[in-house]
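> example.struct
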């Protein structure tokens, strides 16, 4: 779900969480807040990545296990938006993507009919859009009052049941997620789903 977008991150900065969330242009999807140490827990040990990701690391110097500080996102359909902070070399990343106009870079996503678009934010983060719109990331340029509710915690994941349909949930009831040692636990009212961490990105 999130792994593909992790390939295209990040720069060291002092961007505050409220500002980071304020770049998200929608709340229609699964809201995700994840701090760097939790990324390492979810990702597991290095070594099993696809060849595409290994090439990306080699050419850009960015490895999300090491260089990601924080990611906030709204993961929806058809559009998803990610705002990331950490350490990255924008010149290398934009060169890797290779299709940049006026500061917006884009490349075809692995999912047919979608594009990954990227833009370096003036306040030091990186915005990423995954959408049928090749320039969707432009919607994340402005900072606005956050459209989603959030807390300053290491991990937060919440959204309406319909956005969790791949895990057997549905409807408009709010789903809250928490991490256990080996599972992602989804709670929607009295309904609970436990998903092994190793299956989250499948």
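> example.seq
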């Amino acid at each position: 779900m999130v792994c593909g977008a992790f390939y295209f991150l990040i720069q060291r900065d002092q961007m505050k969480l409220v500002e980071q969330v304020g770049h998200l242009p929608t709340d229609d999807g699964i809201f995700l807040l994840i701090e760097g140490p939790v990324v390492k827990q979810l990702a597991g040990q290095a070594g099993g990545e696809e060849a595409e990701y290994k090439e990306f690391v080699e050419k850009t110097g960015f490895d999300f296990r090491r260089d990601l500080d924080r990611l906030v996102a709204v993961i929806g359909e058809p559009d998803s938006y990610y705002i990331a902070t950490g350490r990255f070399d924008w010149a290398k990343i934009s060169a890797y993507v290779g299709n940049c106009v006026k500061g917006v870079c884009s490349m075809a996503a692995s999912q047919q009919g979608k594009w990954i678009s990227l833009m370096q934010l003036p306040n030091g983060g990186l915005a990423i859009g995954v959408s049928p719109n090749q320039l969707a990331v432009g919607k994340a340029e402005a900072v606005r009052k956050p459209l989603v509710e959030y807390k300053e915690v290491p991990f937060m994941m919440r959204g309406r049941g319909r956005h969790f349909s791949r895990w057997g949930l549905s409807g408009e009831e709010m789903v809250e997620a928490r991490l256990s040692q080996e599972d992602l636990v989804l709670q929607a009212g009295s309904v609970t789903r436990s998903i092994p961490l190793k299956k989250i990105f499948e």
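> remarks
Helices lie at 3-6, 17-22, 36-43, 51-60, 64-67, 90-97.
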